[in-house]
């Protein structure tokens, strides 16, 4: 099967939004963006051996490659609309591609996102997705506008994906029932798109949690010219992580494990009362884990009134 047959069979006939004038098939896509909106654009590459193991279920890879991009749009408060997909494959295996597309398009259709273009090449397995979203003028959530005194929140739960990864790396054995629950977190992260909408006009800053709360909140603090403190007793640790790990270890996974793809956001005291209503229709829990503070140092950890020491504080950094 040649490149064009492959595109035709797997990618060209997916559902198309009405604002896509020309999708796959011409030199480039043609789109009518809505008036009075800004475009929000993000891209992410997943490489075999770096971001996932060779035996990852193809449907999971399809889901995750799109989900991590939608998560970045969610962190901006944006509505996802159009994506491109560049896929490099060692060989064109039909069954593999069918499952990959099933994972990819199931999520795309859920959020009414159209695949408008891409590229297929032969080589070591790697997936690059570029996602485009829109947001009403001046309403985007950013990293740089948190203020000292703002409260720090996260959606959902933390640490579940990282514990599944530990199992996959052979570092901790989990029973098959528990693994099934946690692999769902690791392979099928759910981008918090609806939470992102709800936070427009309420949160002062927002980021999605890919590298772990400690590092990602550090990015917000640095961009905003302040610091932050986290109350480790308030962390929404995934229930299975609490059960399978010692307390300090569970806290470390929640802070540094990464790949939770939850949102971390800051809310000024005056907006705190609006938060429950703002997030109610997203159906996702949220909880306060700390506060922005003055200073320039790394994010501080506290356990009640005591400073808390965590032995392996780090976030994910490809070049460190
Ligand atoms: Mg991000």
UniProtKB/TrEMBL annotation:
<keyword id="KW-0547">Nucleotide-binding</keyword>
<dbReference type="InterPro" id="IPR006283">
    <property type="entry name" value="ThiL-like"/>
</dbReference>
<keyword id="KW-0808">Transferase</keyword>
<feature type="domain" description="PurM-like C-terminal">
    <location>
        <begin position="147"/>
        <end position="297"/>
    </location>
</feature>
<comment type="pathway">
    <text>Cofactor biosynthesis; thiamine diphosphate biosynthesis; thiamine diphosphate from thiamine phosphate: step 1/1.</text>
</comment>
<feature type="binding site">
    <location>
        <position position="51"/>
    </location>
    <ligand>
        <name>substrate</name>
    </ligand>
</feature>
<feature type="binding site">
    <location>
        <position position="72"/>
    </location>
    <ligand>
        <name>Mg(2+) 2</name>
    </ligand>
</feature>
<comment type="function">
    <text>Catalyzes the ATP-dependent phosphorylation of thiamine-monophosphate (TMP) to form thiamine-pyrophosphate (TPP), the active form of vitamin B1.</text>
</comment>
<feature type="binding site">
    <location>
        <position position="72"/>
    </location>
    <ligand>
        <name>Mg(2+) 4</name>
    </ligand>
</feature>
<feature type="binding site">
    <location>
        <position position="119"/>
    </location>
    <ligand>
        <name>Mg(2+) 1</name>
    </ligand>
</feature>
<dbReference type="InterPro" id="IPR010918">
    <property type="entry name" value="PurM-like_C_dom"/>
</dbReference>
<feature type="binding site">
    <location>
        <position position="44"/>
    </location>
    <ligand>
        <name>Mg(2+) 1</name>
    </ligand>
</feature>
<keyword id="KW-0460">Magnesium</keyword>
<comment type="similarity">
    <text>Belongs to the thiamine-monophosphate kinase family.</text>
</comment>
<feature type="domain" description="PurM-like N-terminal">
    <location>
        <begin position="25"/>
        <end position="135"/>
    </location>
</feature>
<dbReference type="Pfam" id="PF02769">
    <property type="entry name" value="AIRS_C"/>
</dbReference>
<feature type="binding site">
    <location>
        <position position="259"/>
    </location>
    <ligand>
        <name>substrate</name>
    </ligand>
</feature>
<feature type="binding site">
    <location>
        <position position="27"/>
    </location>
    <ligand>
        <name>Mg(2+) 4</name>
    </ligand>
</feature>
<keyword id="KW-0067">ATP-binding</keyword>
<feature type="binding site">
    <location>
        <position position="43"/>
    </location>
    <ligand>
        <name>Mg(2+) 1</name>
    </ligand>
</feature>
<dbReference type="GO" id="GO:0009030">
    <property type="term" value="F:thiamine-phosphate kinase activity"/>
</dbReference>
<dbReference type="InterPro" id="IPR016188">
    <property type="entry name" value="PurM-like_N"/>
</dbReference>
<dbReference type="InterPro" id="IPR036921">
    <property type="entry name" value="PurM-like_N_sf"/>
</dbReference>
<dbReference type="InterPro" id="IPR036676">
    <property type="entry name" value="PurM-like_C_sf"/>
</dbReference>
<feature type="binding site">
    <location>
        <position position="208"/>
    </location>
    <ligand>
        <name>Mg(2+) 3</name>
    </ligand>
</feature>
<feature type="binding site">
    <location>
        <position position="211"/>
    </location>
    <ligand>
        <name>Mg(2+) 5</name>
    </ligand>
</feature>
<feature type="binding site">
    <location>
        <position position="44"/>
    </location>
    <ligand>
        <name>Mg(2+) 2</name>
    </ligand>
</feature>
<keyword id="KW-0784">Thiamine biosynthesis</keyword>
<feature type="binding site">
    <location>
        <position position="316"/>
    </location>
    <ligand>
        <name>substrate</name>
    </ligand>
</feature>
<feature type="binding site">
    <location>
        <position position="42"/>
    </location>
    <ligand>
        <name>Mg(2+) 4</name>
    </ligand>
</feature>
<feature type="binding site">
    <location>
        <begin position="118"/>
        <end position="119"/>
    </location>
    <ligand>
        <name>ATP</name>
    </ligand>
</feature>
<feature type="binding site">
    <location>
        <position position="27"/>
    </location>
    <ligand>
        <name>Mg(2+) 3</name>
    </ligand>
</feature>
<keyword id="KW-0479">Metal-binding</keyword>
<dbReference type="Pfam" id="PF00586">
    <property type="entry name" value="AIRS"/>
</dbReference>
<feature type="binding site">
    <location>
        <position position="72"/>
    </location>
    <ligand>
        <name>Mg(2+) 3</name>
    </ligand>
</feature>
<keyword id="KW-0418">Kinase</keyword>
<feature type="binding site">
    <location>
        <position position="210"/>
    </location>
    <ligand>
        <name>ATP</name>
    </ligand>
</feature>
<protein>
    <recommendedName>
        <fullName>Thiamine-monophosphate kinase</fullName>
        <ecNumber>2.7.4.16</ecNumber>
    </recommendedName>
</protein>
<feature type="binding site">
    <location>
        <position position="143"/>
    </location>
    <ligand>
        <name>ATP</name>
    </ligand>
</feature>
């Amino acid at each position: 099967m040649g490149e064009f047959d492959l595109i035709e069979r797997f990618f060209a006939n997916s559902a198309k939004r009405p604002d896509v004038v020309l999708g796959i098939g011409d030199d480039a896509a043609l789109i009518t963006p809505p008036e009075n909106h800004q475009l929000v654009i993000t891209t992410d590459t997943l490489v075999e051996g770096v971001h996932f193991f060779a035996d990852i279920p193809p449907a999971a890879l399809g889901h995750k490659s799109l989900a991590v991009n939608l998560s970045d749009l969610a962190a901006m408060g944006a509505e996802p609309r159009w994506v491109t997909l560049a896929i490099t494959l060692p060989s064109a295996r039909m069954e593999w591609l069918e499952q990959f597309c099933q994972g990819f398009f199931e999520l795309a259709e859920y959020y009414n996102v159209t695949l408008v273009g891409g590229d297929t090449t032969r080589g070591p397995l790697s997936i690059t997705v570029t996602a485009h979203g829109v947001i009403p003028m001046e309403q985007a959530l950013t990293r740089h506008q948190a203020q000292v005194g703002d409260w720090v929140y996260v959606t959902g739960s933390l640490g579940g994906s990282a514990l599944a990864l530990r199992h996959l790396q052979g570092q901790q054995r989990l029973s098959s029932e528990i693994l099934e629950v946690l692999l769902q977190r690791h392979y099928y992260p759910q981008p918090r798109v609806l939470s992102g909408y709800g936070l427009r006009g309420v949160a002062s800053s927002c980021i999605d949690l890919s590298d772990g709360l400690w590092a990602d909140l550090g990015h917000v603090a640095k961009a905003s010219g302040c610091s932050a403190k986290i109350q480790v007793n308030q962390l929404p640790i995934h229930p299975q992580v609490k059960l399978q790990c010692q307390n300090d270890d569970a806290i470390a996974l929640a802070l540094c494990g990464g790949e939770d793809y939850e949102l971390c956001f800051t809310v000024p005291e005056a907006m705190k009362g609006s938060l429950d209503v703002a997030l109610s229709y997203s159906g996702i829990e949220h909880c306060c884990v700390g506060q922005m503070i003055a200073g320039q140092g790394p994010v501080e950890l506290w356990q009640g009134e005591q400073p808390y020491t965590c032995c392996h504080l780090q976030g994910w950094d490809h070049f460190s």
